Amino acid sequence: MKNRILKALASFGLSVCVLAGSSVVSMAEETPGKTECKEHTWKTTTEYKTECVETTFQHKLPDGTTETLTLCPECGKVKNNTQLTKVNGVFSNFSNLTVHTGTLKNGEQVMTAAFYYPTVIERVICEKCGTVKSEEVTPARVMAQPVIASIEVPANTISGYSLMQINADGTETPVSVSYNTELNKAYFRLDVTTGAQLLRMVPTT
Length: 205
What we know:
The protein has 205 residues and is mainly β.
């Protein structure tokens, strides 16, 4: 009898030790200590940031003087002047086309059109410890290559106006516009070779 009790106690004690050991191991697995990577696992991440791209235009006023406008074609902010409003519902044969309209402090109604690309940050980073192996940054920019864009905007954006594209030397080129009244759409083609474009909206009535 005595031997059986001792064996039972010994067996119980062993079980307790095993359970206690299992508990410690489990806790250690659930809350591992922070260690440095012995072998990195690399992955490439891409981040996009919206940042202003200041673009300068030389704009001839009706009195013959020249006005310099510096604005961002992405946010529509005109430096030391006013804030243009982004036009929704714009479509083009090129992606990332942004159109803004508004009235300058001198009373001129204008439109801007530009292909805008945000800042792109590409990093090669370790999934385990977060170590950055390399980083490449492509700054925000507008397209600047030979391009004729086909643009569609809501008709009420430009109805009642004729569009005059302002060239680099301040001269103006008329822009031909067609309308689809059933769809409430206006269509025009625009030379955007030099990047962001500035157009004067001339009232027709």
